[in-house]
Design goal:
- The chain is mostly beta strands and 272 residues long.
- The longest helix is centred in the first third of the chain and has 19 residues.
- β1 and β2 form a beta hairpin.
- It contains 4 helices and 20 strands.
- The protein is 11% helix and 37% strand.
- Among the domains are: 88 residues, Lipocalin; 87 residues, Immunoglobulins (Immunoglobulin-like).
- The strands form 4 sheets. An 8-stranded antiparallel β-barrel has the order 3-4-5-6-7-8-9-10.
């Protein structure tokens, strides 16, 4: 009985030893080639699963639209400007002023040309205004807004605009008729296309509207009464300050600004 059990146990262990590769109490390592597949059987060549770039990359032109179609136009150009009755635009016409010296822009002249509203700020060229909304117009050149403000009775009294990121409000002023009588005459040749020419100086605290030139022949003329003494002055042509081309006598003021000077005597004008 004991021999049977021992024989049975040995016969039972032998297949396990054979399976594990144990013969005569020594391990028999299994060769890798007996259970590893050759590389070519599960590592396909690169070309079979790495398609060339041209097979899955679209050409740039297929998903990159040209800049003109990708970037929307400025908001004031998104739609055709609304046409406004020219009679309704006349209420905005005239000159608007800021105190001299705050910023380079001291006057804004609003005019009506070809049934469209135009504005001429001093020191910059005239530009067309495009209607945006009630009493708000857009500068056709840079897109900045001009907001016209109403006063009592619904009359336009000022305009608010933006200069270098800051808002300023210019008050509407009334331009008087040309000043053509006085003991001192100022003349300016040329500038036939100018709309408003004004004389400003130390004698009127550099007022930008008080003394207006009139057109006589091929020149602009302004006559005013001046007290005897030395006076500094300049001309303002459509908001642009210029020296008198006919007077070479100039002086710098306390701020280094060059102005023309004249010396008025009891009987005549003398230049120092």
């Amino acid at each position: 009985m004991r021999r049977f059990l021992i024989g049975f146990s040995l016969s039972f262990l032998f297949p396990l030893n054979a399976l594990l590769g144990v013969v005569d109490n020594q391990a028999s390592p299994i060769r890798p080639s007996s259970f590893r597949l050759p590389p070519s059987s599960f590592h396909p060549p690169p070309s079979s699963f790495h398609p060339p770039p041209s097979s899955f990359r679209l050409p740039p032109s297929s998903f990159r639209p040209p800049p003109s179609s990708f970037y929307p136009p400025p908001f004031w150009q998104e739609q055709a400007p609304r046409k406004i009755n020219p009679e309704a635009l006349k209420k905005y016409l005239g000159r608007y002023e800021l105190e001299v010296g705050i910023i380079p822009i001291s006057t804004l002249d609003v005019s009506l040309e070809n049934d469209e509203l135009w504005i001429k700020p001093s020191v910059v060229k005239k530009r067309k205004l495009i209607y945006r909304s009630r009493r708000v117009f857009i500068d056709e050149i840079d897109g900045s807004p001009y907001s016209f403000n109403q006063g009592e009775g619904g009359k336009i009294v000022s305009v608010t605009f933006v200069y270098e990121g800051e808002q300023y409000t210019a008050q509407r002023v009334t331009i008087p008729p040309p000043s053509l009588k006085g003991n001192t005459t100022f003349r300016l040749k040329g500038f036939s296309d100018a709309s408003v020419v004004v004389l400003a100086g130390s004698f009127n605290n550099w007022n930008q509207t008080q003394f207006v030139f009139g057109r006589e022949g091929d020149e602009w003329v302004c006559r005013i009464d001046l007290e005897p003494g030395k006076h500094a002055y300049k001309f303002i042509v459509d908001g642009n300050w210029i020296l008198d081309p006919a007077n070479p006598d100039t002086e710098d003021d306390d701020y280094g600004v060059k102005n023309n000077v004249i010396l008025v005597t009891r009987y005549s004008i003398q230049r120092p």
